[in-house]
Amino acid sequence: MSQRSSEPGPSYWRVSLALALRKRSVETSETEALQRRLTALDLTLIGVGASVGAGIFVITGIAAKPTGPAVCFSFLLAGISSIFSALCYAELSARIPVSGSVYLYAFVAFGEFIALLIGLNVLVDYHVGAAVNIASCALYLEKTLRLMFGDVCVWLPSTQVISLLMVLLLTCILSVGVENGLKRVNGLLVFGKVGIVLLVIVVGCTKVQPTNLSPVFPFGVGPVLSMSATCSFSFIGFGTVTNAAEECINPHRDLPIGITLSLLICALFAWASI
């Protein structure tokens, strides 16, 4: 009878860990399926369009309740932390100019299992962000139509139905293509939202009451620090820029420019609108 070797073979957990943490190189095909049409300006507009909206119009009101006038410091802390994250995104997107965003970066750096966890987190993040944006937009649209036309809008469907119709409309626009769909429609939406933000800033400057700014920290510093995490939701649009890596003309140059400019513009609008 043969005697078994005293040296144990690779265990199940060791093999599983090796498979989970294995890394693969990312290769770009010479025959690209996506057409490169996006410039640095288009990428900047994509980042601004993904942030300006619910991030400024909704999060500001939510964060102001527990913090009071100190909400501006919550946005400041969120903006500072987002700057470091944006610089990391810019560096990685320049080195790995392939669509996939943070999932792909984790895949290259840490392996498949870590990339899977981060990818699931990103999916939840994007779905929640899209749901908040579309729900707030549908609610604003419903209230605006009822204020403008009054009882004439009895036929108006519920907010959930309006949200579903808007999602279908945006899906059809994206299906048209990058040149005719994404670039033109996103540009119009971004300029429209920026115009609304500027209008709110200009009109709000005439209604400022200094008495409302005292005390600055009515509930202490704790809520300011905790709500800074919520305020960071207003700056997540720069991560969307990296998903268009394979559709921009010069990804090594345009991606860092689009990420940095979109974050700075969103931070400026957030602070000015407060």
UniProtKB/TrEMBL annotation:
Subcellular location per UniProt equals:
Membrane
**By its UniProt entry, which Pfam families does this protein fall under?**
AA_permease
Q: Which Gene3D superfamilies match?
A: Amino acid/polyamine transporter I (1.20.1740.10)
Question: Is RNA-binding one of the keywords?
Answer: no
User: What positions does the domain Amino acid permease/ SLC12A occupy?
Assistant: 43-269
In terms of superkingdom, the source organism counts as Eukaryota
**Keywords noted in UniProt:** Membrane, Transmembrane, Transmembrane helix
Q: According to its record, how does it sit in the membrane?
A: Multi-pass membrane protein
What residues form the membrane-spanning segments? 43-64, 70-90, 102-124, 154-178, 185-204, 224-243, 255-272
| Keyword hit for Transmembrane helix | yes
Protein name (record): Amino acid permease/ SLC12A domain-containing protein
